[in-house]
């Protein structure tokens, strides 16, 4: 049955050019491509010339900026995560079809298909470390120097569904965030297990919100969490401190990222569908992308203050 309201929906990937002059930022739309169904993930090639995007149409499009997009990857179910691995010149894709696939984008077929224990929910790469979070709280670790074999599989230290993961910049471990407003800090070395811990965040009284995005600062290696409470915070895992808590937005933050030198933190503000379509009001739920200029005091690590308490 034709639904004119459905036909009006456009699924697009848009590129914006950001101009910075001191503390002033300006954005300029440059180009856009369309997908047939919702887009769930995107990533850049390391030289900034190419964008990859995938989603519910079960394919990944490679878009050379200024050129035409071409399909370079396919799955049997929606594609939820993608990452370009410059050290291997390969694209990795994770899907709800319970597989990872590695692609040489010059070839039509994957160079390797890796079975996962469940649907892929999250993925992070810091070569040679790759961490994949799946349904049923599985966390699968790969050494990309031997990508066809799992390096380690663990059950998440968090009790509820995984939403996001972030590999440490030094490749020695990873962060995991979940729908329960909690983050786990996990080291891979068995000798470092005493450094593992979890902490609560994105909570207000009895209200608990999902942690949707984790990002390490590319210079200082502190990190941010962004959540469905509409806030983002800066943290230092080594001193176990929150460096800065930002004021809340009036809608959830479903995704966020730093630019390549950490001078800009970008985050999206929009309805996250966690309360269902019946609670979505298009008249009031506008979609925004905000840019924040992190101050050094917000992202630079500080010595730990020992208060004798526990988190």
TrEMBL record:
Any Pfam family hit: WD40
Q: Which domain of life is it from?
A: Eukaryota
Which InterPro entries has this protein been placed in? WD40/YVTN_repeat-like_dom_sf (IPR015943), WD40_PAC1 (IPR020472), WD40_repeat_dom_sf (IPR036322), WD40_rpt (IPR001680)
| Keywords (A to Z) from UniProt | Repeat, WD repeat
The identity of this protein, by name, is: Protein RAE1
Does this UniProt record's set of keywords contain Repeat?
yes
- Segments annotated as WD repeats: 32-63, 72-113, 211-245
């Amino acid at each position: 049955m034709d639904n004119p309201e459905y036909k009006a929906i456009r699924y697009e990937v848009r590129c914006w050019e950001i101009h910075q002059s001191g503390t002033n930022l300006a954005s300029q739309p440059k180009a856009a491509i369309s997908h047939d169904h919702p887009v769930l993930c995107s990533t850049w090639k390391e030289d900034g010339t190419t964008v990859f995007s995938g989603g519910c149409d079960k394919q990944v499009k490679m878009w050379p900026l200024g050129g035409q997009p071409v399909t370079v990857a396919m799955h049997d179910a929606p594609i939820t995560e993608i990452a370009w691995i410059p050290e291997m010149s390969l694209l990795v894709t994770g899907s709800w079809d319970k597989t990872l696939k590695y692609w040489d984008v010059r070839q039509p077929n994957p160079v390797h298909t890796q079975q996962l224990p469940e649907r892929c929910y999250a993925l992070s790469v810091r070569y040679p470390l790759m961490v994949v979070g799946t349904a049923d709280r599985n966390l699968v670790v790969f050494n990309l120097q031997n990508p066809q074999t799992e390096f380690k599989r663990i059950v998440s230290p968090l009790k509820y569904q995984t939403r996001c993961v972030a590999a440490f910049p030094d490749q020695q471990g990873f962060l995991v965030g979940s729908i329960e407003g909690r983050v786990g800090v996990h080291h891979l070395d068995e000798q470092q297990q005493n450094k593992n811990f979890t902490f609560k965040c994105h909570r207000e009284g009895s209200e608990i919100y999902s942690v949707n995005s984790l990002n390490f600062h590319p210079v200082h290696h502190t990190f941010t969490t962004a959540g469905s409470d509409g806030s983002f915070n800066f943290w230092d895992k080594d001193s176990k401190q929150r460096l800065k808590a930002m004021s809340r937005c009036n809608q959830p933050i479903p995704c966020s990222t730093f630019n390549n030198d950490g001078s800009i933190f970008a985050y999206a503000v929009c309805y996250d569908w966690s309360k269902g379509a019946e609670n979505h009001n298009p008249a009031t739920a506008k979609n925004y992308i905000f840019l924040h200029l992190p101050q050094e005091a917000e992202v630079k690590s500080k010595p730990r203050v020992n208060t004798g308490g526990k988190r």
